[in-house]
Specification:
five-stranded parallel sheet, Rossmann fold, binds ribose-5-phosphate, 25% helix, alpha/beta
Length: 280
């Protein structure tokens, strides 16, 4: 039985199809006082229940806790899939007096599950915060399929940690160069500065690859360092695209953004369901 959160309904359906398992008819409601309640309209006992929920908001976290509770009532084993783990980027107390939010969230989610699968968390070390067995899944390779035909492609990570993702997309694509920029983010202002890569981008189709595009600040800075590329594409696992990220990317010269269904967006171009299904 697959129990999807409200922000992961398409992925839940894709996963159910991939596994040939039942997709529960989950309803998402709210009481007059604003409290949420999920309801599986057609629950059935099962050996395993898979809760699939991207924790994109405070409400989504509560929904996930409720889905885990429903799952535990009907299934022997409860697996929690976090297609996108919210608060994962707050994996340290960056300033005096701040929480380690990723740890707080992980502690809250652990008691209700026997296993956690998380698609491309910001840092794999976030798994150490969970009290349940945790597995990070790498899904960047899925982003190669929707890319258009590319001329002399250059796959670039906007920072050193994204180089591996760029390499995964290049490998799945089959050809091209891999490089990365050097990035610095000012902890106080959040401003991003990026030092250029050594590879010449002139006349080439450039694919910038990252785990997440949130404000678009990192990508815009990186694109600004490119000299005369033919086309610029952005491929990211989590297309958060908060605030004015879309117009920011467009103004920076991005031809198209490709994301997965860890976040359900207009830019979603491919599903991570096969990756999740393999891990289940
Ligand atoms: C940071 O290390 C991440 O990999 C992303 O580069 C970053 O979180 C993207 O955020 P934004 O789009 O706000 O620059």
């Amino acid at each position: 039985m697959i129990l999807p959160g409200s922000a992961s309904q398409s992925l839940g359906a894709a996963l159910a199809a991939e596994l040939d398992e039942r997709l529960a008819a989950v309803e998402y409601e709210r009481f007059a006082d604003g409290e949420l309640v999920v309801r599986a309209a057609d629950p059935e006992p099962a050996d395993r229940a898979v809760v699939v929920a991207s924790t994109v908001s405070g409400d989504a976290h509560v929904e996930l806790l409720q889905l885990q509770d429903v799952a535990r009532q009907y299934a022997e084993e409860v697996v929690t899939v976090l297609p996108y783990m919210g608060y994962a980027r707050q994996d340290q107390a960056f300033r005096e007096g701040e929480p380690v939010s990723a740890r707080a969230v992980a502690r809250a989610l652990s008691p209700g599950t026997d296993r956690v699968l998380c698609v491309d968390p910001h840092e794999r070390a976030v798994g150490e915060f969970f009290d349940a067995p945790f597995e990070a899944l790498a899904a960047a390779d899925r982003l190669a399929a929707p890319l258009p035909d590319l001329v002399d492609p250059l796959f670039l990570g906007p920072d050193a940690s994204a180089r591996g993702l760029a390499r995964d997309v290049r490998d799945a694509h089959g050809s091209g160069t891999v490089d990365h920029f050097e990035k610095h983010r000012d902890r106080d202002t959040g401003e991003v500065s990026v030092a250029p890569s050594e590879t010449d981008a002139a006349g080439r189709d450039v694919v910038l690859v990252d785990d997440i595009v949130a404000t678009g600040g990192t990508m815009s800075e990186a694109i600004g360092q490119l000299e005369s590329p033919a086309h610029v594409f952005v491929a990211c696992v989590h297309a958060m695209l908060a605030g004015n990220a879309r117009s920011r990317l467009a103004r920076a010269g991005v031809d198209r953004v490709y994301g997965t269904d860890t976040l359900e967006r207009a830019e979603t171009a491919v599903s991570v369901a096969p990756t999740v299904a393999d891990a289940l």
